[in-house]
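User: Hey, my collaborator sent me this sequence without any context and asked if I could get a structure. I don't really work with proteins. Can you help?
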Amino acid sequence: MRKVKEAFGLAIGETVKDFVGTDQNGNSIQLSELLKKGKVVIVFYRGQWCPICMPHIKKLQNSLDKIKEKNASIILISPENQENIQKTILKTNVSIPILHDKNYEIMKSFDVDFTPGKSLQFIYNHILKANLKNAQSDDTQTLPIPATYIIDSNGTIIFRQFNRDYKKRSKIKDILNQL
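Assistant: No problem. I've predicted the 3D structure and written it out in structure-token form, which is a compact way to encode the shape of the chain:
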């Protein structure tokens, strides 16, 4: 029997490893470049099939101007491929950059990656129609713990919302207060 890895997430005070990703428009986005302009909010979400993720993304989009007023940037990170990221955009009308985390490299560097057990895979794939094996980089069905981080201009985590209970997400007021 294979042991399932448990994600713990990076902690406040830790330094984030620089990364580069491609957003839904084909733009290359590098964390260190964003940090030159100010703090960065990073939000990990599971995918367009997730009934909790989509309303959360809509709230983030509705607060985008307030985040920008604080001289901060925001990016969303998902294991889903570009086709499914386009479904997220259609469902949420989001303009926030969404990075496809190919091979789960960003998720792994934040220690938010996990592989759901068989019963969760059944729920995600058959009830929620996630089709994880085809919607991502490979067929491991790896997902992120939905988490939010705020990184300061030095690359240090100053805020984290990390909860294995997928229903608990960062609140906009908490993000804005930390910016």
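In plain terms: The first strand starts at residue 20 and ends at 22. You can pass these tokens on to your collaborator as they are.
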